[in-house]
Amino acid sequence: RIPARWILSRNYRTGKVPNGTVRCTSTKPPACVWAASLESGDTMETATTKPLGKSDVATISELDKLSGFHVLEWVEDFSGWDDESWGLYLGGKLIGYCTIGYADNECPVITDHELWTPDSYQLSDVFILPAYRHRGYGSKMVKEAIKGRYVSEGKRPVFLQTLNEKLQTFYRVVGFSEIRNAMGYHTMVLPPNNQI
Fold this sequence. Notes:
The chain is an alpha+beta fold.
């Protein structure tokens, strides 16, 4: 859990970062930095979550091939809207990405949910390179992408659909809860009042 003094706001705070917490280093939609302990012991690496840009096209294309997603289309189609596709950078290398658009063209499990509105968000295309999984990078990236979207457009419910039940465990850590009676879909929601 991030201490209250480090929660994002429009006036991004900077300063010494306690291990495992977030520090924002930008006055634009967040480029947030955190320190994360790696499995290799005392080694510390800095990871940054920030909007993807045109300079990332080659790496995004490679990640698309590995993941089966089409995030490059988000970057190319939505130029100027830099809060919908997010990348996770470690030592300047793009090691993962996700998208967070509107949940406006979805199945009835989402659109019939009591929290859904036409401007609700949908998290999708979450991918971390296999060599960097199970180290906390994915959950940090997802949290920061959601916080970034909250900063730019306000807090709203965030919906997602997973490929299987096993992935729901990952999203529960972030704060999502399962939508019951989801007609066989693995659908989850993060209410806007949940602290992430």
